[in-house]
Amino acid sequence: MQFSNSKPNLQKSVQEIIAREPKIVAIVQKIVENNGRALLVGGAVRDIFLGVPVKDLDIEVYGISLLQLEQILRSFGVVSAVGKSFGVLRLHHLDIDWSLPRADSSGRKPQVVVDEHMSFERAFKRRDLTINAMGIDLTTYELIDPYHGFRDVCDKKLRATDLRLFVEDPLRFYRVMQFIGRFEMTPDVELNHLCSTMDLRGISSERIEEEFEKLLLKSRRPSLGLRWMKDIGRLAELLPELAATVGIQQDARWHPEGDVFEHSMQSLDAAAVLAYDSEEQKLVVMMAALCHDLGKATTTQISHEGITCYGHDIEGEKLCVSFLKRITRKNTLLETVPKLVRYHMQPVHFVRGDAKPSAYKRLARKLAPHATLKMLALLALADARGCNPQGHEPLIIKDPEIEAFIRAAHDAQVEHRPEEPVLKGRDLLDFVGPGPRMGALLQEAYEIQLEEGIVDKDVLKQRVLRLKK
Predict the structure, then answer these.
(1) Which of 85, 150, 251, 338 is buried most, with the most CB atoms less than 10 Å from its CB?
(2) How far out from the chain centre does Cα 305 lie?
(3) Using an 8 Å Cβ cutoff, are 56 and 43 in contact?
């Protein structure tokens, strides 16, 4: 991630952001007319300095009461008071949090203190990291930076804003993990120590899932977050299936990069920069890249003949399920990623074995409904690129075998979806009623269709009815 060590033109940057919604300017003007002060705070300020697109806007208002702020917002539309007890208001059809400065008491169920006269230093103290503890005055465009967050952005350093408050929210551990990957920043010694010892109990699985998805979907090098977990001694505790790959040797002829963990990290980073049709597809392939060689931890054998890992694809399918349940609740991922892991070596095997179109059609059917041969090829490419012996970043190479696999899948017309069955249940109703026997006949017809390339409905009907007499 590239950014400048000099402050950008804050006025120009902020005006370009808020110009997307003219109501913001008018609301800020009303706040100022009522002796208030509105600051753009949090991640938006950080992202301005990082030079990345700003999406989420949070505006903190000083000098006026929550009631006054609510009255001002009501003059612009319907106000949602869902977060009012936390000093947060939202205007319908405007995706912005308008909040008053607040402080939280200690404990897992903190009491929130809202105070419009709170100092910037105290208000920003509750934020997790210094890079998120900055504000920009929306009238004067002054940078408010009591904890030197801009300096830390320039130094690519992650620091806790307050050491005591940081550990009171265990989710912050996972936020550090994904910030490391997204922003390619390094935690300081104190933050590493906090994260290596803090209690991580009590985090909802949904929140953990959100942070892992941010790591995988928003990072150029998501492996950095996972390498960090290993380096501070928490990988075995939190992701034992992945930790088990550390130190597992590989045949240097095919994997000169090092152990299975190193290969998995490089493959993950390779998957991060491939082109996808959607974020959902990207998430599936990246999860599969992370999990594809988990099975080597239990199948690797070292003998005088060399290093082997026969059956690691089958074993990996099972380990993948237990791994995924630690970081996601999405059934689509739990059903699809293990399939990709199970068949991740097939693209190369198909090309080297000169597989027939029928083999591609059968494989497409096995991967359906959520995974495709195109996704399997992307996984295979990430696997091939995760073999750099000269450093930790993956290779940037083309693979002629994987390209040949995609061409063959395209020629078989199953690159993006399996072939549709020609024979349907309604075509057999005159001969057999709905039930198991019909299902068996349809399955047999589909097998013949895929294996022999028969797409004539009448021929298929005659074949299966004759077979079942």
Answers:
(1) 338
(2) 40
(3) yes
DSSP secondary-structure letter at 121?
H
- Residue 172 CB contacts under 8 Å (≥ 6 apart), including other chains: 128, 166
Task: Say which residues have a Cβ less than 8 Å from residue 166's Cβ, sequence separation at least 6.
Answer: 128, 160, 172, 191, 194, 198
CA dist., res. 211 & res. 198, Å (int): 17
Q: Would you identify the CATH topology of the domain 10-156?
A: Beta Polymerase; domain 2 (3.30.460)
What CA–CA distances, in Å, run from 238 to 173, 174, 324, 381, 434?
Answer: 12, 11, 12, 28, 48
350/338 Cα distance (integer angstroms): 19
| pLDDT attached to residue 458 | 86
Mean pLDDT of 271-284: 97
CB count within 10 Å of CB 4 equals: 10
pTM attached to this predicted model = 0.91
Q: In whole angstroms, what separates CA 115 from the centre of its chain?
A: 36
List residues bridging with 302 in a β-sheet.
307
pLDDT tens readout for residues 24-58: 999 999 999 999 999 999 999 999 999 999 988 99
Contact 144, 54 (CB under 8 A): no
CA distance 89 to 67: 10
- Alpha-carbon distance of 132 to 150, in angstroms, equals 9
CB-facing half-sphere around the CA of 257: CA atoms within 13 A: 22
- The span from the CA of 319 to the CA of 310, in Å, is 15
- Of 453, 458, 451, 469, whose CA–CA distance to 423 is shortest? 458
Residue range(s) of every CATH 3.30.460.10 domain in the chain: 10-156
Instruction: Report the distance separating Cα 48 and Cα 436, nearest Å.
Output: 61
> Which H or E element spans position 96?
strand 94-99
- Report how far residue 193's alpha carbon sits from residue 28's, in angstroms, rounded to the nearest whole number: 41
**60: enclosing H helix or E strand:** strand 57-62
Region for 9 from its dihedrals, namely left if φ exceeds 0, alpha if ψ lies in -120 to 50, beta otherwise = beta
Strand-pair partners of 261 = none
Cis peptide before 369 (omega within 30 of 0): yes
List strands edge to edge, sheet with 94-99: 79-80, 88-91, 94-99, 57-62, 37-41, 135-137, 143-144
Nearest Cα to 339, choosing from 305, 375, 303? 375
d(CA 416, CA 372): 5
Region of residue 89 (phi > 0: left; psi between -120 and 50: alpha; otherwise: beta): beta
Strands 306-308 and 301-303 come out as: antiparallel
User: φ, ψ for residue 186 (rounded to 5)?
Assistant: -115, 125
For the segment 17-21, the average pLDDT, to the nearest whole number, is: 87
Helix (H, G, I), strand (E, B) or coil at 130: helix
